[in-house]
Amino acid sequence: MDQALLRAYLSAVYELPSSNGPVRASLDGDATTDTALLPDLLRSEFAVVTAYNPRSMVLPRKTNEGRHFVMRDLLIIGCYRVEPCISYEENGEGTWREPSWLVHHMNRDEAIAYGRVFHQNMVLVNRGARPELVVTDYTFDDVGTTVVGHWRVRT
User: Fold this and answer.
1) How far apart are the C-alpha atoms of 14 and 148, rounded to whole Å?
2) Residue ranges per domain, the chain?
C-alpha cells in the first residue's frame, strides 16, 4: 500500500458519536497500557465503514450519497445499530471529508465484507481499545492485512 495513503488514514480525525457527546480521535497516538483513560466508546467493539469514493475514486455527490444510504439500509437490515460519523484531515488546508457509518458490535470479518462489496481501500475496526485499519481492496495487499494504530483523543 502507498505509504502516503496509509499515513493519511492513520492521521485522519474520526468524529464519532457517543452518549457523552462527539469523540474526536485519530489512530496516530502513543501506545498505552491504561485504556481506562480512553472514552467508553473507544473501548467498545465497533467498525467504521463508508461507501464514498470507492478505491479513492472521487464520485459525484449524488452518486456517493446514494451508495452511502444503500450501505446504511443493508447494515440496518443486518440488525446493526448504525450512527453517522465523519472522518477528515486535521490540518486547516485539507478539504477531504468523508461521511461514514459507526457500526456498533460489528466484527472484523463482516466489516471486511462490507469494505469489499463497496470497493473501499480499508475499514476501521476497533476491538478492546485497539483500532485496526484492515485492507479490503485486493489491489493493495492481501485482503485482511492489518495496520494496528493507537487512539489519540483530539480536543
Assistant:
1) 16
2) 3-30+41-154
